[in-house]
Amino acid sequence: MKFQLGLIVIAFALMAISFWDAPYPDELKLQHAPTLTILLGLAVSSFYFRMSNLSFVCIISFLIIHIVGARWIYSFVPYDEWSMAILGTSISDHFGWQRNHYDRFVHLASGILLAPPAAESLQRLGGMRPMAAAMTSVAVVLAIGAVYEIVEWQIATILSPAQAESYNGQQGDVWDPQKDMTLAWFGAVLAAVALARHRFTGAI
C-alpha cells in the first residue's frame, strides 16, 4: 500500500506543480477537475480494493501524461521544442503534421494503460475469466472514452466559443471525438491482446 500511496502523492505533487506559472490557468482548472476526482478516488478506494501494482502504475502513468497535456491544454504541448532540444529536429516537421497531436497520443495511451486495470477489476469484482476480462476491457475503455467526450461536450456548451475551443482542443477538426475514440479503441485492443496472451490476473 505504501508504494501505491507514494504514487498518489507524486501525482498530486505534479498536478500542483502544473499550476505554477500556467499559461492557461482557467482552462487548467477545468482540465484538472477529473484529475483531482480520480486521485481522491484512488486514495479512498485503496483502503477497500487493493489493485495490483501493475494496474496502479498504469493508472498513475496515464494521469501523469494527462497532467502534462492539461498544463498546455493539449493543443499547445511544446513537444516540437522538446524534440528540437533533444534530437535536433521537429517531430511535426519530420512527420509533416499540421496540428498538435499530443491529444491523439493521450487517447492512444488511455486504451493501452486503462485496459489492464479494467481487466483486473472485471476478474476480481465481476468473476470473469482472464480471457473474457481482457476482451471486455476494450468495451470498458470505450465506455470511459464516450462518457468523457459527452462530459467534455456538456462543459463546452456553458463556456464561451473561445474557451470551448481551447478546452476541447479540437483544433478545427470536426471529427476530433471520433478520431480520439478510435485511437483509444486501438490502444485497448493492443493491450487486450497482450493481456489475453499472458493470462493477466492482476497478481503483480
TrEMBL record:
Q: Which keywords does UniProt give here? A: Membrane, Transmembrane, Transmembrane helix
Where are the membrane-spanning stretches?
28-49, 56-74, 131-151
Q: What is this protein called?
A: Inner membrane protein YjdF
